[in-house]
Amino acid sequence: MTRPPTTPDTPGRPLTTTPDGAGPAHDTAPGPDPTSETARSDGHGTVVRVAAVGDIHLGPDCAGVLRPAFAGLPDRADLLLLAGDLTRHGTVEEARVVAEEVADAGVPVVAVLGNHDYHSGEEAAVTQVLTDAGITVLEGDAVVLPVAGHKVGVAGVKGFCGGFVGRSAGEFGEPEMKAFVRTTRLSAERLALALGDLSAAGCAVRIALTHFAPVPDTLAGEPLEIHPFLGSYLLAEAIDGAGADLAVHGHAHLGTEHGMTAGGVRVRNVAQPVIGRAFALYRLPVAGDGTPPVPEAVRAAAPAHAPGGELISGAVRRS
Ligand SMILES: [Fe+2]
Ligand SMILES: [Fe+2]
Q: What segments bear the compositional bias annotation Low complexity (predicted)?
């Protein structure tokens, strides 16, 4: 996990930003449509419906803005992921606004904090406010949620920066530089351990939740000069090493929704300015639940989106 960044990333892979979720036509469909965002099955087996958003940057002046959208979650999602930067300056007052927004979500809410949530040095109090509201705030740990008889696991860390393969900072030289990179390395190691815990717990679906980006794919649109401050390849190595079905992050407001790790784990940047709506919806088939095996090549080439929510076919391992 600490080896030099010498392996290539995923150059040339097409990225798409097709909008998904929030499709009103599916909300009013009269019959059970296996591709609708309300369906718990894709016609072959169970799907886990994941709503996710980051970088909502709430403050007292926008209280109530997201509450109506979150109130409809139980019909559309099994859980809500919050990918950090929930506040503007990390104050308790702002955290209380976040807590109020999700108070009636009606589904489990799992969050990580972002850099903005640390700004006032009140991250412990912010975490407490969110926890008191029933939100599970992860930092180097994991949570297992029961969904339709299956275990769905979420492992979370804020993560940190440092850059990506071939253009990253190294743990070398001055103490300050070593400390900078060590922060990212330790965060990535905690993420790997937490994902490993989910495997040990027998989770049918495993999700890695971070604020900082694990891959550069989802930074497309951000100035190249600031990529090293938006994420780190060490997070992707942790995800690929431990395994996950989906990786969700925020932080890159000008980035792109879709990406993939070198190991083939799908990555989604759910920063609200990127997804352009209250939350994105992803549908993850439960492995071994009647879903017929799909050849790897077909999975890799399959359309990224299904009506009413993106269908995530699982990790595509590359040799
Ligand atoms: Fe942000
Ligand atoms: Fe951020």
A: 9-21
- Residues pairing with 231 in the sheet: 213
Which secondary-structure segment (H or E) carries 180?
helix 175-200
Using the mean position of ligand 2's atoms as its centre, give its distance from the Cα of residue 290 in Å. 39
Angle, helix 175-200 to helix 233-242, in steps of 10 degrees:
20
The model's pLDDT over 132-169, given as tens digits with 9 standing for 90+, comes to 999 999 999 999 999 989 999 999 999 999 999 888 88
**Smallest-distance ligand from the CA of 211:** 2
The model's pLDDT over 15-71, given as tens digits with 9 standing for 90+, comes to 222 233 332 222 222 333 444 455 566 666 889 999 999 999 999 999 999 999 999
Rounded to the nearest 5°, which phi and psi values hold at 180? -60, -50
Length of the chain: 319
CA–centroid distance, residue 27 to ligand 2 (Å): 32
Distance 212 CA to ligand 1 centre (A): 10
Look at phi and psi of residue 276 and say left if phi exceeds 0, alpha if psi is from -120 to 50, else beta. Answer: left
Distance (Å) from CA 202 to ligand 1 centroid: 33
Ligand nearest to the CA of 230: 2
Ligand 1 centroid – CA 44 distance (Å): 38
Residue 189 in contact with residue 157, Cβ under 8 Å?
Answer: no
Nearest bound ligand to the CA of residue 57: 1
Query: How remote is the CA of residue 117 from the centroid of ligand 1, in Å?
Result: 9
Question: How far is ligand 1, taken at its centre, from the CA of residue 115, in Å?
Answer: 8
Domains, the chain, with CATH or none: 40-288 (3.60.21.10)
d(CA 271, CA 55): 5
DSSP-derived secondary structure letter, 178: H
